[in-house]
Amino acid sequence: MVINMMIKNDLENFVLDYFRINNGEVLIGKKHITIKVPKQLADTLNCENVLNISFDKEYVKKNEDIDFITTGSKLFNKIVEAMSDKGLTTLRGYKGQNFTGIEFNFKVTFDYIDKKEKMFTFLVDLDKKKINNKMLESLKNKNIQKYDKINVSKKDIEKCYLLCLNEIKKNIAQDIDIIEEKLSEEFKKEGGIIENFYDRIIADLRKTHESKEKTLQDNNRKAYSSLYVEVRENHRKQIDKNEKSIDELRENNRKVLQNYFKTKEQRMKEIENQYKLQTKILLYSTALVIVR
């Protein structure tokens, strides 16, 4: 399962996880999510090949063609059932003190200019709903036994999964802080170079336009200050032309500067996105662990 850590709601994580790991294409809008579902998966879930869903109840009320997804909704229940059927087909049995749990194996990817990965394995006690990695460690060198599979409720799977997810978030918080601090410093450096580059261009353009406008205004002042009416009249047409040129120059100056300000803003946004951290969690395998 792939989980974008920027998505705040764990329920949303849980649902989008399932589609991504099963090769579904997830297109996320502000409140509206479109999912292109592969045929085999659509058959498994008994759903359409294209789903339009939302986790926002108020948004769904205003858009009746959008399905509201929450705990207990039809699609959510189908996903958890499918995870229960498929995800826990791996069964590992051991001899020892009675214990039943689910093993979750995760890969965390810190995706930015560089890429860093961390692996996590958790063994969750199904009875106590607590992580018990000491038990996991103690089972490493034991021989696997054959036991009959037991049924695990979808509610228990969800609780165990979210327990691991929250533990990972706590575990990687320091990694995220360190990476984001590094990215912030690099962004300031790179962003400063881009900002200075465009600021110099804008300053030069302003200087050039101001010089041209000053020349035109000086020509007008000379004509206005003439002592002779006939001279002023001779310059009237030139004065009108200069005034029009000044207006055109100012308008052109405004447009050119506006374009450069827009380009500068776009480049700064591109640099900001380049130095933005995307943290993803991949749940790549699960197993039912029984000790008897």
Structure in words:
- The chain is α+β, with helices and mostly antiparallel strands and 292 residues long.
- Helix content is 55%, strand content 21%.
- It is built from 8 helices and 10 strands.
- It has helices at 10-21, 39-45, 57-62, 74-87, 133-138, 154-224, 229-234, 236-274; strands at residues 2-4, 25-28, 33-36, 50-54, 67-68, 91-94, 99-111, 115-125, 130-131, 278-291.
- The strands form 2 sheets. Strands 1, 6, 7, 8, 9 and 10 form a 6-stranded mixed beta sheet that branches.
- It starts with a strand and ends with a strand.
- The model is unreliable at 1-8 (pLDDT under 50).
Average of the residue pLDDT scores: 80
Largest sheet: 6 strands, mixed
The fraction of residues in strands falls at 15-25%
Low-confidence sequence ranges: 1-8
SSE order, as H and E? Answer: EHEEHEHEHEEEEHHHHE
Would you spell out the secondary-structure blueprint of this structure?
Elements: E1 2-4, H1 10-21, E2 25-28, E3 33-36, H2 39-45, E4 50-54, H3 57-62, E5 67-68, H4 74-87, E6 91-94, E7 99-111, E8 115-125, E9 130-131, H5 133-138, H6 154-224, H7 229-234, H8 236-274, E10 278-291
Parallel strand pairs: 4-5, 6-10
Antiparallel strand pairs: 1-10, 2-3, 3-4, 7-8, 7-10, 8-9
Helix pairs in contact: 4-6, 6-8
What features would you highlight for this structure?
292 residues; alpha+beta; Dihydrodipicolinate Reductase, domain 2; 4-stranded mixed sheet; 10 strands; elongated
